[in-house]
Amino acid sequence: MTEHTLSNTEDKVSWLVWVVSLVAVLPLFLAHYPLGVDIPQHAGQIALFREMQNPAFIYSSLFKIHLMTPYLLGYIIIYVLSMLMSIALAIKLVLAGSMMALPIATGRLLKALGSCEAYALLAIPVIYGFSFNWGFLNFLVAMPVGLAFLASMVRRTQSYTWCDDLKMALLINALFFCHALVWAFFFGITVLYVLCRERRPYHLFKLIWPLLTSLPVVIGWFYHTMSNSHSAMASMPNYAMGLWRLNPLPLVFGSGNMMFNLGLALGILVLPRLMGARHSKEPARYMPLLASIIVVEFFPHAIFGIAFIYERFAPVLIPFYLLTLEAPQANDPVQYRGIAWLGVAGIILLFVSNEAVMMNGFNSESAGFERIMQQMDNGKRVLMLMFMRGSDYSPAPVYLHFPLWYQAEKQGLVEFNAASEYTPWVQFKSNMLAPADVQGFEWNPQLFDWNRTQANLYDYFVIRAPIAPGQYIFKSHLCQVQMIANVGNWWLYGKRSVFGSGACKFRQ
Fold first, then answer.
1. Which among 50, 214, 377, 383 is least buried, having the fewest CB atoms inside 10 angstroms?
2. Coil, helix or strand at residue 381
3. Prior bond to 416 cis, omega within 30?
4. DSSP track, 220-246
């Protein structure tokens, strides 16, 4: 095969990975609101930052801008896009770009290692994994950046220029401002990879010094955060160890269907072998997979006030497994290549079709909230009480923060609010926290008490419950609210002093 023919073949494979990855994220656009537990909180953060620039925003005195955050890059991109479109669409575009970038970045990494870029197609089933279902937006943005950084290091071990140093220094610093956890993860993996490739001290330092340029920023941020966040300082690691860690497949593929998960896993293990792939004998190529296994099996569930540490890294097991594969040599006999390619196409088709059904179903299921929100005036303060957090279309409690879409679209304020945490770019001032903004209240709406929760602060109460909840929640204060709307499991109550008329008759 001539060099020109080889180049054309590689270009076709690259385009194939791009196109298939693009098709794989199209189901995202079937739902009006993107699925994901924390996505509404991120949407609310974008809206809060925008409203903080508005002198007429009546809640601005409650908040402060906090730009020293490792969530900055993803938020900036969405904020700029939201000037041209709705926040929901801006988030879907950034999600789609980040998710399709993961198999593309995996392919570039495989190419840098001299393997077959087409194997990256088998990374597509992980893009709707744990982090997607939980709506870890900035984490999803950061993962392909981390893979791109690792690919840059692989190329740098093969050839060296000062331009590469500059590129890597920029990438590792950008990675921190995408997500601190992903920065730490790829910092460690990259060092392990380099240690396996190079043992001479001077050459080792030449390879890793671009990584060190990020340390002053990271140390400064960590010191600032620990000095100003008592909750983060007091948070002890929660390891949540158990036998369930031996089966990470539900985390990897984002599905609770064991047969579906096993089928995907079996296909990913077997199909490359049918294509003639062999496992590499180079130890460095196993370091990313080994590191990710250690993280998934032994790292904490929560630390420093950040939950789901090990869970969110589980999907990367598949891309890192693919890195251990070498493409067959030109003279190697490959008997089942055609069957294997049909298998790859079948896995992707099955996976994307399943996600399309899930997104379409979620869109219908969540439509009731849109109708509830139509009954709500702009600029009000809202307390959400999500007794029903689950969905038929996700293993995660995707309605936990769902009413934050009111904040994103109607210039109001919804609580519980992530502005009470130390990572967002808009935060509550320390003396402005309401009782409902204490972490844990969102998981325990049954703790609502009219006086302790300071219910008089709120204009609306948005509740998701299987039956009319008014008399059970408001109890002796029922006459201070009135039911405004009910659609399915969604219930909207308004404070009678703001919206009420007529005498209270103790009716729902």
1. 377
2. strand
3. yes
4. HHHHHHHHH-HHHHHPPPB----GGGG
Three-state secondary structure readout of 432-494: CCCHHHCCCHHHCHHHCCCCCCCHHHCCEEEEECCCCCHHHHCHHHHHHEEEEEEECCEEEEE
Residue 238: strand pairing partners:
302
- CA 302 – CA 296 distance, rounded (Å): 12
Cβ atoms within 10 Å, residue 81: 18
- Range scoring the smallest mean pLDDT among 119-128, 163-172, 378-387: 163-172
Distance of CA 395 to the CA centre of its chain: 15
The encoded tokens of residue 188 equal 């460690």
DSSP 394: B
Using alpha carbons, list the distances in angstroms from residue 44 to 8, 49, 221, 315, 330: 46, 9, 24, 27, 54
Q: For residue 271, give every residue at least 6 positions away whose Cβ sits within 8 Å of its Cβ, in sequence order, or none.
A: 122, 340, 343, 344, 347
Question: pLDDT tens digits, residue range 243-252?
Answer: 788 899 999 9
**Cα 233 from Cα 227, distance rounded (Å):** 8
Here the tokens at position 333 are 């006999």
> What's the Cα-to-Cα distance from 114 to each of 107, 109, 289, 373, 450, rounded to whole Å?
11, 9, 17, 53, 64
Longest distance between any two alpha carbons in the chain, whole Å = 88
Alpha-carbon distance of 336 to 423, in angstroms, equals: 50
pLDDT tens-place string over residues 223-239: 888 777 656 656 778 88
The residue assigned the tokens 């072998």 is 273
Distance CA 415, CA 438 (A): 10
Beta strands in 281-396 (DSSP E): 302-303, 306-307, 325-326, 381-386
- The verdict on pTM exceeding 0.85 is yes
Which runs of E-coded beta strand occur in 272-380? Answer: 278-279, 302-303, 306-307, 325-326
How high is the mean pLDDT of the chain? 90
The angle, 0 to 180 degrees and rounded to 10, between the axes of the packed helices 180-197 and 137-158 is 20
pLDDT tens sequence across 386-399: 999 999 999 999 99
Q: How many other C-beta atoms can be found within 10 angstroms of the C-beta atom of residue 214?
A: 20
- Taken in order 492, 494, 500, 506, the sign of the CA dihedral is positive
